[in-house]
Amino acid sequence: MSDSERSGLVDDELSLPKATVQKLINEMMPDDIICSKDTRDLLIDCCVVEFIHLIASEANEICEKETKKTIAGEHVVAALQALGFEEYVEEVDEVFKEHKKQQKDRDKKSTRLENTGISEEELLRQQELLFAQSRLKYEAQQQ
Q1: Which string of DSSP letters, residue by residue, matches 10-47?
Q2: What is the block-wise mean pLDDT of the chain (143 residues), using blocks of 10 residues?
């Protein structure tokens, strides 16, 4: 991604939430040192955003070498390894696997309706019946 492509993006889209960065700072700093909001914002601008750009650029290069059009999680993991951030790979890989599992579970839930064995017409009929019952109950309460 070139600088001209990056400049069109809002840095907030490429960053971590400020509260998350503040939490990381608080965990890393001794208790007797306070980090100002300006310092936090500077860290976000100089470090977090640049780190994301660096990883994204490397992942994009790996993706292009594989003649893929979409950066996948595997490309990000490979980018971390290529850039010498091996200490993050295990945790990122765990989070990536958990994300894939959640996506799979979400896909299963979305097909639950399809697996009921009830036709779309029957489902619509049941829905209309429920609406009619609710309407009658509402009208009875209004009187």
Answers
A1: -GGGGS--HHHHHHHHHHHS-TT----HHHHHHHIIII
A2: 45 72 86 87 84 92 93 92 92 90 76 72 90 91 84
